Amino acid sequence: MRSRLAIAVALPICAWAPPAAAQPILADLSSHVIAISTDFTGTEVVLFGALEEPGNVAVVVRGPSERVVVRQKDRIAGIWVNRTNIAFDNVPSYYGVATNGPIETFADERLLERQEIGLNHLRMAPVDAEGLAETQITAFREALVRAKQREGVFPAEAGQVVFLGDRLFRTTISFPANVPTGQYQIRVFLIRDGHMVHATTTPLIISKIGVGALIFVFAQRYAAIYGLAAILIAVAAGWLASLVFRRG
Amino acid sequence: MQIYLPIAELSVNAILILGMGATVGFLSGLFGVGGGFLMTPLLIFIGIPPAVAVGTQANQLVAASVSGVLAHWRRGNVDVKMGSVMLAGSSVGTVIGVWIFGILQRLGQIDTVISLSYVFFLGLIAVLMLAESLRAMSRRGRGGRGRGKLHKHNVLHGLPFKLRFHKSRLYISALLPLSIGLLAGLLVAIMGIGGGFLLVPAMIYLLGMPASMVAGTSLFQIIFTTAIATFLQAYSNQTVDALLALLLLTGGVIGAQFGTRVAGQLKAEQARALLAMLVLIVCLKLAVDLVSPPADLFSIDIVKGRV
Question: pTM (2 decimals)?
Answer without folding.
Answer: 0.76
